Amino acid sequence: MASPVSGAALVTVLALIASLAALFSGVSAPLVCVTLVTALLPLLLTLWLRCLRRRDSGTERRVCVLVLGDVGRSPRMQYHALSLSKHGFNVTFVGFVDSKPHQDVLREERIRIVPITEVKSVGVGPKLLTYVTKVTVQCLQLLSVLLRMELQSHVLLQNPPGLPSIAVAWFVCVLRGSRFIIDWHNYGYTIMALSHGWRHPVVRLAKWYEHFFGPLAAHHLCVTTAMKDDLQRNWGIKATTVYDRPASIFRETPVKLQHELFMRLAHIYPQFQHRGCDDDAEAEKTIFSVRDLTDDSVTLRAERPALLLSSTSWTEDEDFSILLSALEDYEGLVSGGASLPSLVCVITGKGPQKEHYRKLIDALHFQHVKICTPWLEPEDYPLLLGAADLGVCLHKSSSGLDLPMKVVDMFGCCLPVCAVHFHCLHELVKHEENGLIFADSQELAEQLKSLLSEFPASTGRLGLFRRNLRTSRGRCWDDNWDQNVLPLITATSR
């Protein structure tokens, strides 16, 4: 059978002969030009497609990891990239670079980050028109990046956000012969519905879009069994559940490292500073820890406050008024004479609603509860989790089908959690085993009171939960990934 190029070449030659014959027969020049263009176009398209699909010895060991979001705030995709590189794949990591990725990603020679610029909406004109303009520009941007890079064996895409990245990535994979994999973290249209409402035309369009383009991928990953069942039942998609697991960097922090972290934070945030009146020149102190300068030993202060930690993207699916209200109740309990420790509440993260909540926090005047909202370096975040006494999660899934990565990281550090209830949370948080599940601020306040009533002793429920976490850590991310994701990559890379 003749190759596509030879067939196109034959058509082109015949068309040229016909064009020359027409020219010498007195046919008009414009018509001859049209004939020439018509003849050359199939050849040019065929040559272009062959160039896009040209494989070399390294093609099967190249994978593009794509997220239409901030690479530094996409831990699961960073873990994918690291796991691929450990198995000898060269990774092209495409996304926004607003926050610094983890050092392991930056140091890995097999991972190359290709930054793309976040497209901002036009500030004038009808909202629908500005949205369409933004999506169009993003389409062209992604097409340019994906078509210019070396041929990849696979494109692994995070969804959401999937508009327009799912359609663009699928189209490029069709053109180039790459395998397309979607990692479903949630449904994009359910997140949009939080701010626009379920009946909004854009939300309806986004739902149709995900339902139409989502099933076109070759393979699918998802984060919960509940999502796997929903994809099969309502989307006709057969997905592999890959539970988030903590990376090896998430573990309990030794006391000496805790003190070093507290000292760094104390230079910026007064909530970590020791405010005692003693003038001990032989000790270095924070509100939580003391280092004896004579022998370099570090101990945690017996009278220290409890360290409460929550992390967030400050989006609509996390209602931090619940936590603030619970802290008001806790402040009232301590002021009323309850035998409870003071609290330092650290809320980490960046996001659109951060300023709104910071104003609410600034309006609070607590004596026994201190709140700070830092943005931590990637290396410091796991250290702080490993030093905390209790975690709080306010993530309430827009679809009811995804699990909060922040809790996975907390459990990696053996940090017990109080988490707000939603549909599939039981797949991660086991009530009265590794944490507690609450429905409202009053219930959260009661849980804080119950868990911290014996602080800092480790004999109460808080200590029990931590011990349970130590004995049930399970498989790490690497083992989980090797079993569930690696076979999908290698099976189609041979």
Protein structure class:
alpha/beta
Based on CA inertia axes, which overall geometry fits? elongated
Give a short account of the largest sheet: 7 strands, parallel
Strand residue percentage: 15-25%
Report how far apart the termini are: 26 Å
Percentage of residues in helical conformation: 40-55%
What is the overall number of helices?
18
Q: In terms of per-residue confidence, which ranges show pLDDT below 50 for 5 or more consecutive residues?
A: 1-8
Which strand order spans the largest sheet, edge to edge or round the barrel?
3-2-1-4-5-6-7
Q: How many E-type strands?
A: 16
Mean pLDDT: 88
Q: Please give the radius of gyration in angstroms.
A: 28 Å
Structural description of this entry:
This protein is of the alpha/beta class and about 500 residues long. It is built from 18 helices and 16 strands. The strands form 3 sheets. Strands 3-2-1-4-5-6-7 form a 7-stranded parallel beta sheet, sandwiched between helices. Strand 14 (about 390-395), helix 14 (about 405-410) and strand 15 (about 415-420) form a beta-alpha-beta unit. Helix 7 (about 190-195) packs antiparallel against helix 8 (about 200-215) and helix 11 (about 320-335) packs across helix 15 (about 440-450). The longest helix has 24 residues, at about 30-50. The protein is elongated, with a radius of gyration of 28 Å. It starts with a helix and ends with a helix.
Which key terms come to mind for this protein?
6-stranded parallel beta sheet; 7-stranded parallel beta sheet; alpha/beta; 18 helices; 494 residues; single chain; elongated
